[in-house]
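Subject: Sanity check before I submit

Could someone independently write out the structure tokens for this chain? I want to compare against mine line by line before I put it in a report. The sequence has 333 residues.
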Amino acid sequence: METKIQDLLVQIAERECNARPYRLEKESVEDYRKALGAAAPAGPFAIDFAPGLSAFSDFVVTLTTARLTNLDRDVLEVEYRNGFWDDAWDGYFYHRALLVSHVLAYDPRLMNVAEFTGSLGYFHGVRAFRKGRYIFLKKGPMEASYERNSLTLPIDSLSADLDNPNLADLSAIFGGDLVDDLRKWVGVETIRRDVSVPARYAFDVFLSHSSKDSLRAKELADALTAAGKRVFFSPDSLPALGSADYMKAIDEALEGSRHFILFGTKRENILSSWVEAEWRLFINEIRSGRKSGNFLTAAGGDLSPADLPLSLRYYEVIPAKGDYIERILQYVI
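---
Independent answer below. Compare away.
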């Protein structure tokens, strides 16, 4: 039976919030103010920004979808904390939407909501979410750390042999039974694709990094560019491409890059969901024979090879210190 997202949202908001963070249909701002009574935070004109249930629900769905891709709160704060909802009542509406989305992302009834039917599943206590070319996996309760309880996989990797590094990591974290369950769920026969290698690459290097490492990664990007390399570095390249579809632009850049460099200073940075999606997809392309370029990790800060997942230790790891850029240039000819 289909479940309405607003029904779940209302139940969670009534349980988790000290006051209703949305107006009911056709409820006036003044009636909403009276309904909140003493629970209404003080502030001139702030009540005028109170969202209707439909608008609040749409924003919660957006946040929940982001959470299902294993984005942590810090990333959500950067990407979605904008606009008057954040300003009104010191973020009253925004923080309630954030709270509701957090609880909603762990509610199995979400599988029966139209917006998530077919893209969300649970297997052996592991939550699986499909979006684009990726599957985002998470196990454990809301309080569990993302660092060692989550994984981002290219869907195509499920059709590979079990010695594929992506599947080896999946088995190590979640157990081997999950591979077969996911294969049945997505239907590996339907996701096989024949991708021809581009005759000419748009980029020599795809430089992947967490936003937390942007400053250090930009030093590498600038050095590679100065050496005559065409570098895809998202903070610079995405605005230049003028694409509003971030995921599509990233996929196209990965497709059009000959080599891949992963830059990171901490394990959690290289395992942030979208960074992990990028490097796993490129590794899968190499393993499938669709890519012939090099893959390497530039390990900055205190990050050591021992901190890296097995999939990354299989390829070249270069400490990001001293003349490391000269060493990297040898791999991106």
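---
OP: Matches mine. For the report I'm noting this point. The longest strand covers residues 257-264.
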